[in-house]
Amino acid sequence: MLIKLPRPSDCKASEITPESIYFSRRTLLGAGLAGVALGALPRLGAAAEVSRYADVEGGAAPGWFSDKLVSTRWQAVTVSGEAITPFKDATHYNNFYEFGPDKGDPAANAGGLKTEPWSLVVDGEVAKPGRYALEDFIKPYQLEERIYRLRCVEAWSMVIPWLGFPLAQVLKQVEPTSKARYIRFETLEDPKSMPGQRSGFALINWPYVEGLRLDEAMNPLAILAVGMYGRELPNQNGAPLRLVVPWKYGFKSIKSIVRISLVAEQPQTTWQGLAPDEYGFYANVNPTVDHPRWTQARERRLPSGLFSPNVRDTLMFNGYADEVASLYTGLDLRKNY
Ligand SMILES: Nc1nc2c(c(=O)[nH]1)N[C@H]1C(S)=C(S)[C@@H](COP(=O)(O)O)O[C@H]1N2
Ligand SMILES: [Mo]
């Protein structure tokens, strides 16, 4: 019998409130949202010779990106025995509230985001602040492939092959001062191309902000990604540059970054600011600390359907305890959720 019915205690999508409830007046009022489709569909173009993933659709990479890919020896870090999530699911079931509250909104609406040229500021407590064109910013780094689990706080998960470079290498380059204790990230603010930022339903204080403690940011698992599935990032996945911190709930992995600041104090982050009882600063994946309204002990691994919900146990630190548990020695993870 292949059909596995969920146990009552399993995570059911219907019982989980999406993170979007907190800012979507549409959800609150149950009213319809006017059409917000913007611009063209995500770039579909020439196949990149580098892709090893069968079902990948995606944009022709800009020159600087494909040059970098072909000249790079990929160092795969792999989740063993777990299938990579189909590209279609990874690119059509997204959270990116700048483009709307529903899972399909980012794929439908992010095509109008202009990711070239892109500039990025590094500032705050660093010896070498600067403003960079993206291609200059990534020039010093080798791209690595990292196949990581991604676990959303809403109790669904995927396995995604990212292309990126360790955040620690960037920190080394910009030289944090002795006052720097945290790193703060900011997403682009551009209501013209981001319908979620200009609609009246937003309770979010844009721009989206995330942060890490400096020692977390130095952990070798933390990367800045510029690609996935052998290609540049689709817009809905956070092009052209996003954070990936696989031992934390997905909302920490901030997309479409325009500013990286080294700071002395713990930054106020978007979800913590909206609902501090539900979303903490740490947001480490933890099956023993439930969300106030649902269990975090289990998760739906996408693709997931009614008859094959594909439910599995959630792993401590999303399965990366060996690499990161020592960061939290002596910290009460029940309080610092
Ligand atoms: N700027 C920004 N970054 C964001 C979000 C967002 O709404 N805005 N959503 C977060 C959440 S809740 C999750 S689960 C992941 C989803 O990443 P994916 O769509 O690439 O799977 O992105 C995170 N990064
Ligand atoms: Mo999420």
Task: Give an overview of the whole structure.
- This protein is an alpha+beta fold.
- The chain has ten helices and twelve strands.
- It has helices spanning 25-29, 63-70, 87-92, 105-109, 134-138, 167-174, 195-198, 214-218, 270-274, 321-324; strands at residues 119-124, 130-133, 144-151, 156-166, 182-187, 209-213, 223-228, 231-232, 242-244, 257-263, 298-301, 311-313.
- Strand 3 and strand 4 form a beta hairpin.
- The protein is globular and about 50 Å long.
- The structure holds ligand MTE and molybdenum atom.
- Molybdenum atom binds next to loops.
- Keywords: Metal-binding, Molybdenum, Oxidoreductase, Signal.
- Its EC number is 1.8.5.-.
List keywords for this structure.
7-stranded mixed β-sheet; disordered N terminus; binds the ligand Nc1nc2c(c(=O)[nH]1)N[C@H]1C(S)=C(S)[C@@H](COP(=O)(O)O)O[C@H]1N2; 19% strand; 12 strands; binds molybdenum atom; 337 residues; 10 helices; 5-stranded mixed β-sheet; alpha+beta
What's the short version?
The protein is α+β, with helices and mostly antiparallel strands and 337 residues long.
Terminal Cα span: 39 Å
Calculate the mean pLDDT score and round it.
85
What value does the Rg take, in angstroms? 19 Å
SSE pattern, N- to C-terminal: HHHHEEHEEHEHEHEEEEHEEH
Q: Biggest sheet: strands, sense, closure?
A: 7 strands, mixed
Please report the number of helical segments: 10
Structural class: alpha+beta
Uncertain residue segments:
1-6, 22-50
| Number of E-state strands | 12
**What amount of the residues lies in strands?**
15-25%
Residue share in helix: 10-25%
Overall shape: globular
Identify every distinct bound molecule in the structure, by name, code or SMILES. Answer: the ligand Nc1nc2c(c(=O)[nH]1)N[C@H]1C(S)=C(S)[C@@H](COP(=O)(O)O)O[C@H]1N2, molybdenum atom
